[in-house]
What we know:
This protein is α+β, with helices and mostly antiparallel strands. The protein is built from 3 helices and 9 strands; from the N terminus they run ααβββββββαββ.
Amino acid sequence: MSESKAMATMKPSDLATALRSIRMPSSSDGFFLKFSKGDWSYGPDDIEVSEVARFGVNPFGVTRGFIAWGDGAPIEEVMVGLTDPEVRMADLPSLPADAKWSPQLGIELMGVTGPERGLAMKFASNSKGGMSELTRLISAIADRADAGEGDFVPVVQLAVDSYTHKTYGKVKTPVLTI
């Protein structure tokens, strides 16, 4: 069975239920989903994502652009949606000498199971592993839409993979299992 046929997708009724259950984040919740050193978390208190969590990915919530890093921390970000003109490196603001721009991809997700149900989140990455995984997910959505499938909203489970880097050793990477 091809990957597109085997893809777990969200039914319109599940999407409607998830949309109706949207809740604003409380002080312990947050909109940003983070992947750091192999751990998935969200919110200002870095709440660990539950093992039962599944997330619907908004195909129209894909973003692309750049993030600026300086002194090991992000200092500026320029991201646009699918229908916006592409951000060009030449149009980005100037940065301090010790900072540099890096390409970044992002997605919008909605919790559909577990304690994360109804919580809208955004995940963005500029790491090699994160960019590769987001590109794979975006391609799977595009393949499904190209095939004329009406159910092209994937439901993903968050996972972790790794590879061995010759300088840094074991490097953990995010996985969005459809």
